[in-house]
Amino acid sequence: MSPSHRYESVGDGNIGLETEVVAPAYDAGSGNDEGVGYETSVPIHPKILAPLSYILPPVSGLFVVILERRNTYVRLHAWQSIVLVLATTLGSMLLFWVPFAPSAIHLAGFIAAVLCAFRAWRDADTLTFFKLGIIGDFAERQVLGTTVLPF
What we know:
The protein is mainly α. The chain has five helices and three strands. It has a three-stranded antiparallel beta sheet. α1 (46-52) runs antiparallel to α4 (101-122) and α3 (72-94) packs across α5 (133-144). It is elongated. It is found in: Membrane.
């Protein structure tokens, strides 16, 4: 986890549950602007970078995960985007034999991605993470370092 962010989880993994990524207090006298909460490795504001993760899944999510190392809020949304598209693809592959099921699953995944992108854009000022149940829980575990995937 980035040293410039503190993360507070508020719940047990329900869909649409909001959690907050809290930046530490800014000390104007120290000359250190690390506490602002909007610093990123990529010179793009989190209000644009977080929703960008959902635009072209999983490519844009992977792009953001690989390049962004400092901002927890952006990394949470990038991981949620990646896991959402993987879950959608897996679900449609498992139910390919049911008429219209793959189309319905992909439509639900698209609607979820649009909702998450909108919430990522809207909540960037408060750094509130809108998570999708177990998909959001997995993204939290990945960003916070409790999962052992290599990125």
